[in-house]
Write the structure tokens for this entry.
Amino acid sequence: MKRSELLELVKKDLKIEIRSKAGLNNAILFALTTAFLFSLSIDAKTFFAPILVLVTLFSSILACSATVTREFELETIEALKASLSAQEIITSKIISNFLIVVSLVSIIAPICYALFNLEGNFFLLLTSLAIVAFPISSAVTLLSPISAFAKGKEAFLAVMLFPIIFPLILPGIKLLNLAHNGVFDFFSALFLLLYAGVVTTLAQLVSDHLL
């Protein structure tokens, strides 16, 4: 694998995201608006874990889908394929999207923590949230090429993601609930990481058909 070129592609995606700020700003605005509305309408202390999983999922769609669809819209995908294999491109996009989501939850989680007036192990909660983000970012990367030219691609992507993300919801909620209480749920974390590995492997296997 051409590691230097792969890392350069990851750096390029991160630089574009930092400079444009459009995806991150939209994702953060959505996340904070959603969290604020939930904090007013329900018992946020009881439902904070489902809320965080929901916010992470939809924020990831807003922030991450552009790293893949941008290559199709700007017609740069063929240039990338000339220097990297489809598997390497998909791998770089998964890495980029994971780093973007981790950055996103690092901003959102402290604000939600304060907004919901929570008390508990914040750093363990943030670590667990990063684990939840890994399979989500992998799934978004897998399906983003399919939605690249669809009208309302974010909504279309969310619909396609549901059957893939559904098995992650309960383990993710359980992991966050226990992490908040200072307990690390090893089995839920292992399931999420293995699931992320399966989705990543699937993305690489079908990458020639996606790109």
User: Anything to note?
Assistant: The longest helix spans residues 44-73. Residues 3-210 form one domain.
